From TrEMBL, chain A:
InterPro entries, alphabetized: Peptide/Ni-bd, SBP_5, SBP_5_dom
Highest taxon of the lineage: Bacteria
Residue ranges of the region described as Disordered: 25-49
Positions of transmembrane segments: none
Signal keyword on record: yes
Keyword entries, A-Z: Signal
Segments forming domain Solute-binding protein family: 120-497
Family annotation (SUPFAM superfamilies): Periplasmic binding protein-like II
Keyword Isomerase listed: no
Lineage: Bacteria, Bacillati, Bacillota, Bacilli, Bacillales
Protein name per its UniProtKB record: Peptide/nickel transport system substrate-binding protein
Signal peptide: 1-21
CDD domains to which the protein is assigned, alphabetical: PBP2_NikA_DppA_OppA_like
UniProtKB/TrEMBL annotation, chain B:
Transmembrane segments: 9-29, 92-117, 129-154, 185-204, 239-265, 285-308
Organism: Paenibacillus macquariensis
Family: Belongs to the binding-protein-dependent transport system permease family.
Protein name, entry field: Peptide/nickel transport system permease protein
Domain ABC transmembrane type-1 residue range list: 93-308
PANTHER family: INNER MEMBRANE ABC TRANSPORTER, OLIGOPEPTIDE TRANSPORT SYSTEM PERMEASE PROTEIN APPB
Gene3D superfamilies: MetI-like
Subcellular locations according to the entry: Cell membrane
Membrane topology listed for this record: Multi-pass membrane protein
Entry keyword set: Cell membrane, Membrane, Transmembrane, Transmembrane helix, Transport
Length: 579, 318
């Protein structure tokens, strides 16, 4: 009898897991990113479909600040921003959740930051030199830099930061490891006690030598700096667990310091008097955990700033509240349909092009989402310095052209209106994450594919990990993905190279990719990336789908707000002030 | 009694052991792992990380490692949260417990009172009204009623806060802190009570109806006892007996958290954390929490068996 009861409970537990799988679609994909360059936008984004498409092109200024709820009116030295779910791992490089990245981006400054175009600008480093062979990077630090505990920040701290990332126990996803620093591998293997490629010349100068030129190195290396005195005092090679104990007691060098972390509720910050640019204008800053809907907190004035999907409905509602400034924003990511290039039907470029022509992407990504998106044709966001439309085929919806291409590729209409080649029907097994956008995609794509004579078999996953493992198993034809926030144009191309997209092997692409990283001259890189984008736009190893559009809404009392596509609010936050 | 207890404890041990193996396999065999969700990593780095976390080891070996650590009281670090699993429990479970214990208490009190009265006045207008209200409360989805109440009471009328446990940025301590928490928990407690009270009221009502028809109630009335005394001393006691079994099952529910309520009201509870860690395949946290609930379930049934024996000496424990 008791065994029976227990069996029942374990079944209940098991079934609750299935339920859980259904209710958790966004978090995993969101939290895949971290570090400065990939900070996720604060708060959950709301999505609602309807009809008209106008969008928001100009910033909108609050019309009636007297409507501001009393709670928000009363705050004089505190700004509150919603953030889905920071976990408390506030040490940069050692966090697993992008939300922790949002927190640490306020606690730690970088050597080098990026501007609105993604180009490097000095922060803690005053300047930098790159050797002619593009292998050695020398950083010159500003004078009198200090950590939040008042201790000086020197080149040794920088060297320490780079070194522990090469520890064999390091389990974060820092891209520093992909740069191949000279001597890095030896250190990781435990055969060397220091990394030979890292050289501290004097307390303000440090250089690093790479084995291979890499244009992303400057920004990747020029990230946050950890205090050697604080994070390094217990360090032994191969043993990094002690850092976990320091996660909630960060010693940083950013605009704010951590005052208090209340798990699941808030992260409280107080202005850092040692910040290199001077103490921020607003004394207190709070990230409030908003797991569910953020509207209720915006409407009651409990948060000052939130991001929303740029649907007409959201924009109208935000404008209607009267006390919010609304600014349009395009994230630096792109959406795509990954094609299974190992399957016969999608191996052929013509078929992939036909699908791109035959899919009404404008209806799916622009019209159905009320203008909260635009059609993508290259692997770079419109805000990137490398973005171009020169020589790019827009693949405007053209079912006739699609049919022509399919006919040309040998897929002819057979019995039941389904195309066949060598007796095999043309079918597309599509995988997508459970979301409203996927529902729209499936509805439109089903019709589009039917018109082309392609059998469409959609499968929707509530759980992101299950979807990924199905993709890894190769049991799909098309799968819908979106990249994390991209800083350097090469970030968006890496997946074509590192084996993530199986079956794409084009020497020309590899050559151009390496060429794009071999130089740090922006104009020259622009040319190379234009060529690369033209190549990928023609070859379509993945089918480019869309760019997202969002808006940021914030309390009209806050001044000096700008939001960078690459570093979010962290860049302008020190200047925010309440009027 | 003591032989019974030792026998039960051995059973419990075996059951928990089997459960842990089952649960471990269940989690490990769900497609995808903690690493696969991170789309930023290259395949080589993924393999490296799986090696660091020991995810590439055979299933039984992983289970063995987990089990031997657990025996030493080490439930590991949450992979996503980078904190010891037990510390996370401590940070989140009490918040869930607070909501659960208050709403469970209210649910039981309301259910007993309403159940007794509607049983006593069976088929009266009161009884009918209660039944209609109960079915209505039971059939409204929690997210709907939650959001509806937020809209009315928090956004429009501004009587209650829209969510969270504290006023953002508040430094209240002592009585002020207590007041703030009560203020914030009102809405979620109302919703949880509304959802739970229906089935329990029906349960007490039908138990009570059965008991009232018994001979000893007629005897009590014949003795000239007041109606109140008959109902609440003689009848209710016996009607409550079967409910003792329910007490045992409430135990895991008190600590388990409620995903939907916590999400809607932005409550910092364990339910949310658990669901999130399932999406991420945060194995140590998943394993730790599920085992914790399993232990509570087994303990709960033991407690209810013992309580039953205490309340009703006719029940023999063997």
């Amino acid at each position: 009898m008791k065994r029976g009861i227990f069996l029942l409970t374990s079944l209940l537990i098991a079934s609750s897991l299935l339920v859980s799988a259904c209710s958790n679609n966004n978090s995993s994909s969101n939290s895949a990113s971290n570090t400065k360059s990939t900070t996720v936008p604060a708060t959950t984004t709301q999505e609602t479909p309807a009809s008209t498409v106008v969008g928001l092109t100009e910033p909108f200024t609050a019309t009636d600040l007297s409507k501001l709820p009393a709670v928000a009116q009363k705050r004089t030295d505190t700004i509150i921003v919603g953030l889905t779910d920071p976990s408390g791992a506030f040490t940069p490089y050692f966090q697993q959740s992008g939300y922790d990245g949002n927190v640490s981006s306020l606690l730690y400054a970088s050597l080098i930051n990026v501007d609105d175009k993604g180009l490097p600008v000095p922060e803690l480093a005053e300047s930098w030199d790159i050797s002619d062979d593009a292998l050695t990077y020398t950083f010159h630090l500003k004078s009198d830099l200090k950590f939040s505990d008042g201790s000086p920040l020197t080149a040794d701290d920088v060297a320490f930061t780079w070194t522990i990332l090469h520890d064999k126990a390091y389990d974060g996803d820092s891209q520093v490891l992909t740069l191949n620093v000279v001597g890095g591998a030896a250190y990781k293997a435990g055969t060397a006690t220091t990394i030979t490629g890292i050289k501290v010349t004097d307390p303000k100068t440090i250089s690093v030598t790479l084995e291979k030129p890499n244009a992303t190195a400057l920004v990747t290396l020029g990230s946050n700096v950890l205090s050697k005195a604080y994070y390094g005092k217990d360090y032994k090679f191969g043993q990094l667990d002690y850092i976990k104990k320091l996660h909630e007691k960060p010693v940083g060098n950013g605009p704010y310091t951590l005052e208090k972390f209340i798990p699941g509720q808030e992260v409280r910050f107080v202005a850092n008097e040692y910040y290199y640019k001077g103490k921020p204008a607003t004394e207190h800053f709070i990230y409030k955990t908003t797991e569910g809907d953020v509207w209720q907190f915006v409407e009651t004035g409990e948060v000052d700033y939130a991001s929303f999907s740029a649907t007409q409905e959201n924009i109208d509602k935000l404008k209607g509240l009267g006390y919010l400034n609304v600014i349009p924003y395009t994230p630096s990511s792109y959406g795509y349909l990954q094609a299974n290039l190992e399957h016969e039907q999608l191996k052929d470029k013509a078929v992939r092009q036909a699908i791109t022509y035959g899919l009404d992407r404008k209806s799916i990504y622009v019209d159905a989402s009320q203008g909260a998106g635009s059609v993508a044709n290259i692997p770079a966001s419109p805000i990137s310095w490398s973005y171009t439309e020169e020589g790019i085929n827009p693949y405007n919806y053209d079912p006739e052209k699609a049919k022509e291409l399919l006919d040309g590729a040998g897929w002819t209409v057979g019995a039941g209106g389904i195309r066949e080649k060598d007796g095999k029907p043309l079918s597309i097994h599509f995988l997508g994450s459970k979301s409203k956008n996927t529902d729209i995609f499936i509805a439109v794509a089903k019709e589009n594919f039917e018109a082309l004579g392609i059998k469409f078999e959609p499968e929707v996953f509530a759980d992101f990990n299950s979807l990924v493992s199905k993709v890894e198993g190769g049991d799909y034809d098309l799968v819908s993905f979106s990249t994390p926030m991209l800083t350097d144009p090469s970030d968006g191309l890496l997946q074509f190279l590192n084996g993530e997209i199986k079956g794409y092997d084009n020497p020309k692409f590899k050559e151009l990719y390496d060429k794009g990283l071999a130089t740090t001259d922006i104009e020259e890189r622009k040319k190379i990336y234009t060529e690369l984008y033209q190549l990928l736009n023609d070859e379509l190893p993945v089918i480019f789908t869309s760019y997202k559009k969002t808006v940021y809404a914030y309390n009209g009392r806050i001044e000096n707000v700008t939001v960078s596509p690459f570093i979010g609010l962290a860049g302008s936050l020190p200047n925010w002030s309440l009027k | 009694m003591s032989t019974y207890l030792s026998k039960r404890l051995i059973y419990m041990f075996v059951i928990l052991f089997a459960a842990s193996l089952l649960i471990f396999c269940l989690y490990a065999l769900t497609p995808g792992d903690f690493i696969s969700g991170n789309i930023k990593l290259s395949p080589e780095r993924k393999a490296e990380l799986r090696d660091i976390y020991g995810l590439n080891k055979p299933l039984l070996e992983r289970y063995g490692i987990w089990m031997s650590n657990a025996f030493r009281g080490d439930f590991g670090f949450s992979l996503a949260q980078q904190k010891p699993v037990l510390q996370l429990f401590n940070e989140y479970i009490w918040n869930s417990f607070l909501l659960a214990v208050v709403s469970t208490f209210l649910t039981w009190v309301i259910a007993v009172i309403v159940g007794v009265i509607s049983a006593y006045k069976q088929y009266s207008w009161f009884d009918t009204l209660v039944m209609v209200a109960i079915f209505a409360a039971m059939s409204i989805p929690s997210f709907f009623i939650g959001l509806f109440l937020i809209k009315i009471l928090a956004v429009d009328l501004k009587w209650l806060p829209p969510g969270g446990m504290l006023t953002t940025g508040s430094n209240a301590t002592g009585i002020a802190y207590l007041k703030e928490v009560i203020h914030h928990m009102t809405l979620p407690v109302i919703v949880m009570t509304l959802l739970g009270v229906g089935s329990l009221t029906r349960y007490f009502r039908s138990n009570m109806i059965d008991v009232i028809k018994q001979d000893y109630i007629r005897t009590a009335r014949a003795k000239g006892l007041t109606e109140r005394k008959v109902l609440f001393t003689h009848a209710l006691r016996n009607a409550l007996l079967p409910a003792i079994t329910l007490v045992g099952f409430e135990l895991p529910a008190l600590f388990g958290g409620s995903l939907i309520i916590e999400k809607i009201f932005n409550w910092p509870g364990i339910g949310q954390l658990y669901m999130q860690s399932f999406g991420l395949r945060d194995y140590p946290l998943l394993m730790g929490f599920t085992m914790f609930i399993a232990i509570l379930t087994v303990l709960g049934t033991l407690i209810s068996d013992i309580l039953y024996h205490v309340a009703d000496p006719r029940v023999r424990l063997q």
